[in-house]
Write a structure and sequence with these properties.
single chain, alpha+beta, Rossmann fold, D-amino Acid Aminotransferase, Chain A, domain 1, 6-stranded antiparallel sheet, 12 helices, 25 strands, 24% strand, elongated, disordered N terminus, binds adenosine-5'-triphosphate, binds magnesium ion, transferase, cytoplasm, Inositol hexakisphosphate and diphosphoinositol-pentakisphosphate kinase, His_PPase_superfam, ATP binding
């Protein structure tokens, strides 16, 4: 039983998910098994089903064309292999016709706008149910307006082509100043020399025009949503459109390709390049009819841009376009939710990143025991000519210098009753040894040293047996630094009942005092 084996997980040829309906219950649709099929574990689980075991419901709320698309199906199949994740696809007729109260329940929602999608309803659903949102819905209003997209990019400090907005809004005539010449336009005072790009403000409108300078023969290239093998046509028309609102921007000279970036969270981005539709408008296709894609490695700067776009637009799954020109990369389009097509690696990665994200966010609150699994591919084993070996990936060292301050230690014999009193006070007789480290205790030793020294000065003939020089040394050491703190001094007292000092002591310390009787 291996989690990573992709085959034989579902009982039918068709991908099988739970199709949700009213009030979170499920019902049959299109002959698809309604139960969530979470792979091979399912049958075993059912034998000793634990009623308390809670599944995390991941709702898919988008137009059917998107929910049933090939990449979505591939990714959801992989997502439902997570033991605790159940996918529920919201049927399109439920989304369009039912009130949000009757939409299926979910803990996490993958929902995104496309043509005909009732974004307002989806927003009210999230207000009602408050699921974890993979792609923020409110930001999806902005994504539909190129002016907002560019404003957000600018606010985030992301490089984008220099641009100006021509708003044909009767209420705001000051935003509609256009001066047109043969080889340039002036938009609200800002000059754009040909070649420049004219984009409808609606991001849903793909009729982007590029105007050529007279030196290149004039005219314009009219881009549109791909129709078969065409993505644009040349037009001899050199004057800009006079109805509708547009963004005018400088044309970025690339190598003729667009870099398409697809994020899955801020730390994952897939990129690929495609021939720009701005060239001759002929779409490059392979023998299977798929559009030709060129491999791309994002630079560190571009990865940072991907992270910023993903976070700024709050879209975990987010597609955007980069133009590599003049040694920089400029974002010219942010599309929001978009999956890479025809890449098994991406399907695997995307499902894994999303599944881990959902588990990380929701497992704790649903009391599901979970930690990010260690994948076989994460184990650093490398094949070599002499077999497989563990690859050394990092060395962590905690290092200190080797020159240790030498021990500073003095030894002295003491016989005075004051030392014995101290020895007794701190329980020295129990083991015959005593360590004094506390400021109060050290102060007491110092007080004794001072007292004995004072008495020695006063009466030379007194019965103090301690050596004056040793007492002075003891006093000097204990008076160092002006106060007792930390652990930079200690006094050790060892009781020697027969009056015999040890030949040597292994004890560390600054003052070792032998109590002799
Ligand atoms: N400033 C620019 N300089 C050069 N080429 C540009 C510029 N802006 C856009 N293009 C070209 O025009 C194409 C379409 O532009 P853009 O991506 O903004 O429009 P779109 O219709 O929203 O595209 P999509 O189909 O990705 O949604 C780009 O892929 C790129 O090849
Ligand atoms: Mg684009």
């Amino acid at each position: 039983m291996s989690k990573s084996s992709g085959q034989g997980m579902c009982n039918s040829e068709l991908p099988q998910f739970l199709i949700g309906s009213e009030g979170g219950e499920s019902r049959e649709l299109d002959d698809i098994d309604m139960r969530k099929i979470s792979g091979h574990y399912r049958e075993e689980e059912e034998e000793d089903e634990d009623q308390s075991e809670r599944q995390i419901m991941v709702g898919i709320c988008s137009m059917m064309k998107k929910s049933k698309s090939k990449p979505m199906t591939e990714i959801l199949e992989r997502l439902c292999k997570f033991e605790y994740i159940t996918v529920v696809i919201f049927p399109e007729e439920v989304i369009l016709s039912e009130p949000v109260e009757k939409w299926p329940l979910c803990d996490c929602l993958i929902s995104f706008h496309s043509k005909g999608f009732p974004l307002d309803k989806a927003v009210s659903y999230t207000k009602l149910r408050n699921p974890l949102l993979i792609n923020d819905l409110n930001m999806q209003y902005f994504i539909q307006d190129r002016r907002e997209v560019y404003r957000i990019l600018q606010e985030e400090g992301i490089d984008l082509p220099r641009y100006a907005v021509l708003n044909r809004d009767p209420d705001r005539p000051e935003e509609c100043n256009l001066v047109e010449s043969e080889d340039h336009v002036e938009v609200n005072g800002e000059v754009f020399h040909k070649p420049f790009v004219e984009k409808p403000v609606s991001a849903e409108d793909h009729n982007v025009y590029i105007y050529y300078p007279t030196s290149a023969g004039g005219g314009s290239q009219r881009l549109f949503r791909k129709i078969g093998s065409r993505s644009s046509v040349y037009s001899p028309e050199s004057t800009v459109r006079k109805t509708g609102s547009y963004i005018y921007e400088e044309f970025m000279p690339t190598d003729g390709t667009d870099v398409k970036v697809y994020t899955v969270g801020p730390d994952y981005a897939h990129a690929e390049a495609r021939k720009s539709p701005a060239l001759d408008g002929k779409v490059e296709r392979d023998s299977e009819g798929k559009e030709i894609r060129y491999p791309v490695m994002l630079t560190a700067m571009e990865k940072l841009v991907a992270r910023k776009v993903c976070l700024a637009f709050k879209q975990t799954v987010c597609g955007f376009d980069l133009l590599r020109a003049n040694g920089h990369s400029f974002v010219c389009d942010v599309n929001g939710f978009s999956f890479v097509k025809n890449s098994m690696k991406y399907y695997d990665d995307c499902a894994k990143v999303l599944g881990n994200m959902v588990m990380r966010e929701l497992a704790p609150q649903l009391h599901i025991p979970w930690s990010i699994p260690m994948e076989a591919e994460d184990i650093p084993i490398v094949p070599t000519t002499s077999g497989t070996m563990m690859e050394l990936r990092c060395v962590i060292a905690v290092i200190r210098h080797g020159d240790r301050t030498p021990k500073q230690k003095m030894k002295m014999e003491v016989r005075n009753a004051l030392f014995f009193e101290l020895f007794e006070k701190y329980g020295g007789y129990k083991s015959g040894k005593l360590k004094l480290k506390k400021p109060k205790q050290l102060q007491e030793v110092l007080d004794i040293a001072r007292q004995l020294l004072a008495e020695l000065v006063l009466h030379n003939d007194c019965e103090i047996e301690e050596k004056k020089s040793k007492l002075e040394q003891l006093k000097t050491v204990l008076e160092m630094y002006g106060h007792f703190s930390g652990i930079n001094r200690k006094v050790q007292l060892t009781y020697l009942p027969n009056g015999q000092p040890k030949a040597s002591s292994e004890e560390e310390g600054m003052c070792t005092v032998g109590l002799l009787r």
